[in-house]
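Anyone? Bumping this.
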Amino acid sequence: MAEGKRLFTLYNCAGCHANGGGGMGPALMDDKWIYGSRPPNIFESIVEGRPNGMPSWRNKIPDAQVWQLVAYVQSMSGQAPAAAMPSRSDHLQSGTPENNRPAQTPIQTGTP
Amino acid sequence: MRGRSTRPHAACVWLSQFLMVLTVGCAGNQSMFNPQGPAARRIADLGLLMIAICLVVYLVVIAVAAWSLLRQRQASDDSAQTTARLGAIVAGAVAVTAAILVTLTAVSAAAGRGLTSPTSQDTVTVDVIGHQWWWAFQYRSDKPQDFVTTPNELHVPVGVPVILRAQSRDVIHSFWVPNLQGKRDLIPGQITTTWIQADRAGVYRGQCAEFCGHQHAKMAFVVVAEPMDAFQQWLQRQRQPAAEPTGDQERHGRDVFLQSTCVTCHTIRGTDAGARVGPELTHVGSRQTIAAGTLPNSVEHLRMWVANPPSIKPGTRMPPHGLSPEDFEAVVSYLRSLE
Amino acid sequence: MESGSGQSGAPVERVEPYPDAAAEARLRRQLEETWHVPAGFLGWFAVTDHRTIGRRYIATAFVFFLIGGVLAALMRIQLAVPDNHFLGPDLYNQVFTMHGTVMMFLFAVPVMEAMAVYLVPLMVGTRNIAFPRLNTFSYFVYLFGGIMVIVAMLVNSAPDAGWFAYVPLSGPDYTPGKRADFWAQLITFTEVAALAVAVEIVATVFKMRAPGMSLNRIPLFVWSMLVTAFMIIFAMPAVVLGSTFLLLDRLVGTHFYNPAEGGDALLWQHLFWFFGHPEVYIIFVPALGMVSAIVATFTQRPIFGYRAMVLSLVATGFIGFGLWVHHMFATGLPQLGLTYFTAASMIISIPSGVQIFCWIASIWRGHPRLATPMLFVLGFIAIFVLGGLSGVTLASVPFDLQVHDTYYVVAHFHYVLLGGAVFPLIGALYFWFPKITGRMMSERLGVLNFWTLFIGFNVTFFPMHILGFQGMPRRVYTYPAEMGWGPLNLVATAGAVLLIAGGALFVFNAVRSYVAGTIAGDDPWHGETLEWATASPPPVYNFLHIPVIEGRHAMWDRSLAPPVVTGLRSDCREVLITDVMGAEPVHAYELPEPSIWPFLCSIVTSAFFVGSIFTPWALPVSILPLTVTLIGWFWPKPHPNLRGDQPLVRPVEAEG
């Protein structure tokens, strides 16, 4: 999860998703999941891309690293075990540390 | 059970071992006793002086201890007179110790003062940015488009002091090239400064000297000292964007590069690749080493590295490529062409 | 009183102040019953006797020493040849971190405190250490902390950021998982244990000395432990604070060490090294006391320059707090600060020099006998002086900027720690083994042990000075072949084999002698200090009668019919409290009975410490059990012997 957090910044996911709050892309730390909140769903979202602007990262990010991102994305809405989630980052804070976020129950919201 | 007279014998063994091995310490590329610049020379001289004094002190103390152990006891040993004399001798020894320490402090302070500021005002400034586990050296200029970033290879002009402004992007590292200067830590949140100067043209190896994680052991760099004109030429060449690939394989390699995982981390100026996660590859073909000083830069080593970085530096962030063999060969030849 | 009687092991004659043998036998039985050590399974956890706890502490510390030694062996195997693949970087980082952590926190400080726990009450002439239940608590907290971090190591969760755990590397971003949390919490465990023992030592030395042991008659070993205890009390809080900040950063999201939010990465270094430098003197100063005890006994003369020796110990303790920045010379500090810390780091060699010169003077005027303990002292002189001199060179900033974080520093601190602390410790164990177990260790094996360790040590660590000069940095899991560091590393590994053999030999000698060694008698060495006045091993009540001290050298200055303290009750655990300066008797004090509650409290405390790594709920959940155990611990005992006309405490007079 810590590695996924680092990759989240390195691959500029924050460019559209900010640090979980969203912007051009949907928020990742709330309870709304358009395409499903299970790990295979998130994996597909990243690798295949999604309509409305999520690019496909196939061949750009190796599979092993995608899974790390999947784990981190899950932790952003508090859905991972608290003892495993990352704590505060070593830069300016943009939100509560992941291990302090309340766990959100995922809601399928369908296509926007 | 009587013991044997062990002290003098042990001292002899000691001395011979010490002298024999000390000579080995003088040679070697990354040796502090192979100074190639004024700062390192000052430190090496100070070091030799202190080691010589310490050696003498050590031998005297061991000799006196051995003699005290082995001497013939006399009835007068317990007398008040002897006790008073012993007291005077001990006090004298303490005074000599204090005098030696004061001298060493003064000599060290004098050497240190000469080390803080460069030898002349005519300096070149380079920013040193430490990452886990590679170095970025940035040469600024009046025009931002002339900024040059060369990873893991620092070129300096001979005989000119080079000011280094050091910072870290992640954890604490330490910039150290023993042939030229003492080390300086790179601390996140601060900028620390030091300077180096090479008196002779040559290539000097340096290494990270503050534990920074998995690949601290393989976070090395080289300092290439060359005459001022050669240095300016090199800088000018570095300012150029990447060379256009000439052959088909190299062109194909560039296309593969821009469409695969490589582009998400590396910059090649003159192409669309602009990510700053990993080292800049604009002139990777002309560098002496790759993987932060771990491997000499050759086709074989480049292949080994790009094929499977974790096999060479376990823990590195660079993943193995997922390319087909032809694409892989194409990328390698493209990188080799980036001189 | 000449030497000679000590060699054969025959007991020195003691004078019986009670001519009536029957009365004496009655007293013995009563004291044995009053001071009995609880037996049985549950009783093992309730023991508060300082000798038992001291023995357990020493044995446990040695288990950690062996673990640390195995970790060192793994490191040396990996580094024996260039580009080795025996340990990958992750495993190597865990191994070298654990080696340093185990050696510094779980072996070096605890074993020195353990020697004090055993010897100080005997040397000052009292029946038990002050605060005996706290002593028991401290041992179990130490044990559980050690178990926690060893278990963490066995599940691939050992700390891996170095024993000094610099931030940001050990912070939440760069060390994910619980590794650094186990490390930081180990600090908490060991510091609680160490502080507890330090407090007990100070109280015992200040207030429980036998009458007549004024300040200028305190043995040098007791002085060294007193100085150490004060250093512990002043140094430990800094690292507790620093490690607590680290835990808060990692678990709760504070920003003590986050420069982007106003914290500072260097704050960690200051807090850690403000503790870290005194820490090495905490390890070293007790060894100075041990050397004094051994030199006096094996030259059969008082140590030369008692006052200078005491003042040197105190000066080392004070000056040791003013040096810490010499670990940070490369961080870009202002010039004035650098010069001050250079000067301070040089000056601290003066008190150590005074000690060395006084010992040499003692050897000069004494009649040295080269038994095993004395051999280790001579080895200490040869090794420690070299280490001290390399330390003087390190005090110089320009030189340090080249050799900092290289194998030169590794060589230096092993010379001063192994040579300056472990050699005296091994010598001290050979010296006091007869007192602790009642049997002598084998002298033949002892001499062999010394030479294996001495030669092995030098072959291992001397080449590291050269490696440092040649530019080999520390904490690297491998190195390239073309650097030319291979041969010296191989030599160092070969020496390590010899060192391990020496360690194994020591354990073998100790175990064999424990079972089948020659019976030692009370005073086999014709010792100087009070512990030799009682049986080997001492009875549970230490001394039949609390002695009255007649001179600086309790055994050598004893008259033929030495005065003793009378009037202390033998039907309850009464000890004599004396005043700080002149040890005049003040009043009698009843120590608490053995109890299971300190052990239960240590369980709750340990559960709280470990639990808080995983959840903040650990704190509220632990408060209630903690309170319960503390209530049990401190529940006042209705005094069964209190009678209306007899006060609970009363002054006693020493009679001749």
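Late reply, but here is one note on the structure posted above: The radius of gyration of chain C is 25 Å.
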